[in-house]
Design brief:
With about 270 residues, the protein is an alpha/beta fold. About 40% of the residues lie in helices and about 20% in strands. Helix 1 crosses helix 2 and helix 1 crosses helix 4.
């Protein structure tokens, strides 16, 4: 499936698939992604090293990844219930099964780099919608799209772009569609600083963009209207393991707002 060619940010798609599979295998899953384990097993059968120590080292993040995905799923599901015909742009989709989890229709569009797109086509054959093999920063993939309403989901993506790239992407989307909902996560500035000082796994953890609040986002994309934000660590009460739940509560007291989920409209 070519997973051995994944590097850079593409490597994080394998990391998050591994973490969603761990959550799915647990006694009390937070996301319960029914497609994660079969996808990981398909990769194993293809010869991919899904048992590497690099992946095992990330296992402690499984709750945060599951909580983040579950909250974004919940917001996206609200939009889809209100307008089942909305065009969905799942940006930096990686190896995520979100479209299957939410019952994607033909207007669901997955966008990721060609190497990731090739792997996900093999993992989810026959999945509804279509996969666009392109960097999200390339304006060409959006040229033939448009319509009255769009739902944009960008999970674990925008922090890897520069502010100029985020601005260009959001401006193109808000110009091509009449109105829509935009969901994405942001990290605190200290997370970007730390990411640049840690040894990177295939260069995957070099982050760049960390707005301090809604005003900095609106300065880049004035068309966006802020809806709400959720600190991922505030969702830790959903964790059934007392030890991990209390650990995340402690982290939140020390490092509040390290990752926030944000919801916007235009």
């Amino acid at each position: 499936m070519g997973v051995g060619e994944l590097d850079g940010v593409g490597w994080t798609s394998l990391v998050t698939l591994h973490l969603r599979a761990l959550d799915a295998r647990s006694a009390h899953p937070l996301l319960a992604d029914a497609w994660a384990v079969p996808a990981l097993e398909r990769l194993r059968a293809s010869g991919a090293d899904v048992d590497s120590p690099w992946l095992a080292a990330t296992s402690g993040d499984r709750d945060l990844v599951a909580l983040r995905a579950a909250q974004l799923d919940a917001w996206a599901a609200e939009v889809l219930r209100a307008d089942p015909d909305v065009t969905v742009l799942h940006l930096g989709c990686g190896l995520d099964s979100r479209g299957l989890r939410l019952g994607a229709g033909p207007r669901w569009i997955e966008v990721d780099t060609p190497d990731v797109a090739d792997v996900r086509r093999a993992l989810y054959p026959g999945a509804p919608g279509r996969v666009v093999a392109s960097s999200v920063t390339d304006p060409a993939w959006l040229a033939d799209l448009g319509g009255p309403r769009v739902l944009v989901v960008a999970e674990g993506l925008l922090m890897y772009l520069s502010a100029a790239e985020v601005q260009a992407l959001l401006e193109r989307i808000t110009a091509r569609f009449e109105h829509g909902d935009v969901l994405f996560d942001v990290v605190a500035p200290w997370v970007v600083r730390v990411s640049g000082s840690l040894p990177a796994v295939y260069g995957a953890f070099a982050m760049h963009w960390a707005p301090r609040g809604p005003d900095e986002v609106r300065a880049l994309a004035p068309a966006l209207r802020f809806g709400e934000a959720v600190d991922v660590l505030s969702l830790a009460d959903r964790i059934t393991s007392p030890g991990r739940r209390w650990a995340y509560r402690g982290v939140r007291r020390i490092l509040p707002g390290s990752t926030r989920l944000t919801r916007w409209t235009f």
